[in-house]
């Protein structure tokens, strides 16, 4: 069993989008659950965002939404953020760099997930 379990929920933000300008706004909500036996700290994030045209954007930096949370055993840390695409469909994937109590570092992968305008394909 992997010590870190990550769940993602996404939604399209029509009021923040301007399709005529190729601007499609999406929100994503992340839940990071520590299923391990020791506390971990989220130090850094890395995202690979790909739109339907194959354009990729890499986003990396310290923490998430300005925080580097400590997540104890059995605890879940949740946050929301967003992404802007030039197409109505795209994907995101990446990883978090985590630090164990003993100072050891490891990556918690974030599986690919879709960003899509609802009811786009009938």
UniProtKB/TrEMBL annotation:
PROSITE patterns: APAG (PS51087). Pfam families: DUF525. Gene3D superfamilies: ApaG domain. It comes from the Bacteria. Residues 1-122 form the ApaG domain. PANTHER family: OS05G0170800 PROTEIN (PTHR47191). This is Protein ApaG. The lineage of its organism: Bacteria, Pseudomonadati, Pseudomonadota, Gammaproteobacteria, Alteromonadales. The gene is apaG.
